[in-house]
Queue: 3 jobs
Job 1
Amino acid sequence: MRTADRPWRGIHVATALPFDDDLSVDYDGFAEHVRWLSENGMDGVTPNGSLGEYQTLTAEERARVVEVAVSASPDGFGIMPGVAAYGSAETCRWIEQAAQAGAQSVLLLPPNAYRADADTVVEHYRAAAAVGLPIVAYNNPYDTKVDLTPDLLARLFAEGLIVAVKEFTGDVRRAYEIAELAPGLDVLVGSDDVVLELGIAGAVGWIAGYPNALPVASKKLYDLATSGQAHAALPLYRDLHPLLRWDSKTEFVQAIKASMDLAGRKGGACRPPRHALTGAAADRVTAATKAALDKGYC
């Protein structure tokens, strides 16, 4: 359960970012999306993640996205911006910006300009933690080439550098090892297609993609998965899994935006070099989204 002293818990939606026809950021549309997510049971948002296409934003755009998210949020709604950067100093500046804007926590990848060793990773998180906001580590070794293994997470947690981890590897066995090596470190579901398995394993949050399109059904699934009702969750999980698995694919941004469009939200175009789904991929996302909507999932 999300509380004032643990604002990173619960469902934080890794928000997709809408663009206008000229591919400028649609800040009004983004603010409306944040409000809509709060009205549909989400606990918070994580702007400026990969789903938010932060790599394509200017510094001014990236800062304003956080400010808009905060201003659009009701009291008690969590804001956990992504603060990834190539350099530790730049990461610290993004954490400072998040704090000044009113965010309650931040999501931080390890150094990702090269394959950093464990000591370098610790130094990076040590510098970030000194800024003062609670830090959720983001373990995505597929893209960063740095694996925040359970023993490394335990080292970071023991030093007080992180409060939680977004676990994206898909290896649900890690949740149990993390609990053994770092009792008290919160595990957050990091990829949509293992929400049931990690919910059973004790996850206390979900940094989620598909609630951008289907927040109500996603919340029901999460609540069942994390409250000992796996049997009741399984039919819904099976129905949604053809969509949820796209969160772990290279085309996840385009897929989720396409589903948003079909669900009546503004997903829209991505900034280059991402391009719209075509061919069989587009057909699969369309069919799976329509199947979910036909069953009343929203």
Job 2
Amino acid sequence: MPPTAWHSTEDLDEFLTRAGDFLRSRPDLHTVVLTVTEGLRTRGLHAYGDEAPLFGLLEEDGSVRGAYFRTPPYRLYLTPLAPARADSLAAHLAGLGHTVPGVSAEAATAEGFAEAWRRRTGAEVAPYQRQRLYRLDTLTQPEPVPQGRPRIAGEADRELLARWFREFVRDIGESENDSVRAESWADARLSYGGVTLWEAPDGTPVSMAGLTPPVAGQIRVAPVYTPAGLRGRGYAGAATAEVSRLARERGADEVLLFTDLANPTSNGLYQRIGYRPVADFAVYDFQGQSSS
């Protein structure tokens, strides 16, 4: 085996066996890979789409230095990579004849891979979103606390959760036409108490905040959603503070969340709750590529 090599596989167990220690070495920066692969492990390989997921890892002198996954039809997701490694991954995937619809990764990694993919395939690169990863420091309840109370969603809330998940996905600009996926998401979250609802005093749910399952000592807050007509009343902040407390209660060493940097309201809110920046991430879309 050469000292440096990318390896691709559709075998999730093989990927986790070989890359697991590397992924657990930085559970904050690798949170998405850890949580998505945990979802695939527990919900099945088609939890995110009909096509088989693809996984890959970079080995240098016998040690894993990078990893990626893709759950079609969604974008490629990368762990942080130096520019030369991002370029070698672009060469590897192009050589396999893969079409990549976009990339999501730590900001410099995403930019480096996008440029390498453009050079190798002629793809047009379009910036989609800038994100910031935050880690919870000292939890602070946002003031004023809205009227009402939190409660963990139960089976009777399944239809509401699925509907709000579809609305959330539309709000962030992603296409979500698959009702089965929304229902599968709701079922998975209900199985471990993974969604907290904020209720108005009359018992009406007005906002939700979710938690990923604990993996490698980290839990990520996702998603946070309030219907459009109920925003600006403090419900999302109260729900987020409650699930952040719950994540700590469930033993998380690191409680994480992502924000859209184009939304100063949410970035300010999470910092008031006690979240501190870890790293910036970026998302790019690709069009017109010729690798397939």
Job 3
Amino acid sequence: MEEAARLMYELFKNLGAWLVSGDQWTGPDGIAHRLAEHLQYSLLATLVAAAIALPVGLLIGHTGRGAFLAINLASFGRALPTVGLVVLVFLASGLSMWPVYIALVALAVPAIVTNTYAGMTAVDPDVKDAARGQGMRWHQVLFQVELPLALPLIMTGLRLALIQVVATATIAAYVSFGGLGRYVFDGLAQRDLVQVLGGAVLVAAVAVVLDLALSALQRFLFLPHSRLRSSGGTPTRTA
């Protein structure tokens, strides 16, 4: 037990020294550069996934058509092995970032589609009927009534998708590209446990920081509306 505790202490001591080393943060292989690459892969993939999934989720949520197909396709997307998809696209397209981006987008789409659809279907039908009764056209009902009410769940879907993508973007290193996964794969190849743990800790830290930031943004954006709904009141003008 004492020997194991000593080895763990040495391991975490070396990990701490690796993380705070000035040399480790500079240069093309430094943490700052790898972090920028990782964020680039993650944010771009999430934006592309949102551009695909948001219209689909809004459409099926508004019309009620195609829900069964869309939800089952989303479930199929969750079941896809990410590394297997990377290898498949890699064999078809050659050495490029396309396999990584396709795999990350495929990973992010299901969470966005399902949460967007859930947010749209959660809108009270009486609210939509009242909007139509006031003469609002379908696109006005969609963008001025349904979408604002569904935004909290849509934001949750975007948040979940981004965190999943950040955690999985390490696969870029699997096909010889950058990102924080470079430390994990290089460390495994070199049998450098400190480097492997360093990469894993950095990925986890980025995921946690982004999750907390998006959670804070979501509360900031929607807390006033939730208070208004819970009070059952409406804004009033004061003279």
